[in-house]
Amino acid sequence: MSIKDEAVAWVKDYFEKNGNADTKALIGISGGKDSSTVAALCCAALGKDRVIGVMMPNGVQKDIDDSKRLCEFLGIRNYTINIAEAYKGLSEEIASKMNAGKLSDQFTSNAPARLRMAALYGVAATEGNCRISCNGNLSERLTGFFTLWGDGAGDFAPLAYLFVSEVVQLGIELGLPQDLCRKAPSDGMCGKTDEDKYGFTYDELEKVARGNEKLVDGAKVRLIKTKLESMAFKRRLLNLPCFVPSDKNPKDW
After folding, report:
1. How far, in Å, CA of 221 to CA of 207, rounded?
2. Do the Cβ atoms of 112 and 88 come closer than 8 Å?
3. Strand locations in the chain (E)
4. Is residue 195 pLDDT above 90, yes or no?
């Protein structure tokens, strides 16, 4: 059975056990490969009428056209919820009450992700009968490249045990446009790709995680292993229902 068939079957089973015939998948759409693939996967499993996309720019999002194109391509109902005013209000209130001239990089990186998750649950509560997806993949899970209770939250996680290369494969199998499947991952805030910030590539990460470290430069192997060890505490906090392909054992990760 292909990854696509396994993943579709898992999503169907999850919704049968955790909803009813009208329960909808609510997905935060960023325009990247992960959210695009999750949206396409849920459409394949549930039908497009049971999938809702939510775009959540923080002010102006340069690549939001990719998000809109994805929603149009799949034919799913969608909303745009701009979190700029909420972020501005929260930032100003915290800075004022704490007498902070400048908020930390940790705040400016994580607060938008947590506000987006709050927005998703707000839309879900208003829509009713929804389950919210966590779109993170295994490469991000291993490196801790997610915000606790932000993009690391949700009700189900269909990509949690798929490396980036497998997400690309799944997206292609689901019939998504190639450019959306292969789009360089970025948080959309600092102008750098995820790999630029890591100091190693997702391909190198996957090789080390799979035990093929001899294929990677020694210095990068050490960097990757240090990253994996330091982020173990974050992984232990993730307990969402996850799709696990038949060739994977969660205990390995």
Report:
1. 9
2. no
3. 24-28, 51-55, 77-80, 130-132
4. no
Q: What is the DSSP string of 72-127?
A: HHHT-EEEE---HHHHHHHHHHHHHHTT-SS--HHHHHHHHHHHHHHHHHHHHHHH
On whether the CB atoms of residues 27 and 102 are closer than 8 A, the answer is: no
**SS3 assignment, position 173:** helix
Give me the CATH number covering residue 193. 3.40.50.620
Phi, psi of 191 (to 5 degrees): 85, 0
CA–CA distance from 1 to each of 9, 11, 13 (Å)? 10, 15, 16
Residue 253 lies in a domain: no
pTM over the 0.85 mark:
yes
62 to 4, 57, 116: CA distances (angstroms):
31, 9, 17
Residue 87 to residue 244: CA distance in whole angstroms? 35
3-state secondary structure 17-33: HCCCCCCEEEEECCCCH
- One-letter amino acid at 19 equals G
- Give the CA angle between residues 184, 189, 193 to the nearest 5°: 25
For residue 150, the enclosing domain spans: 3-247
Question: pLDDT tens digits for 106-131?
Answer: 999 999 999 999 999 999 999 999 99
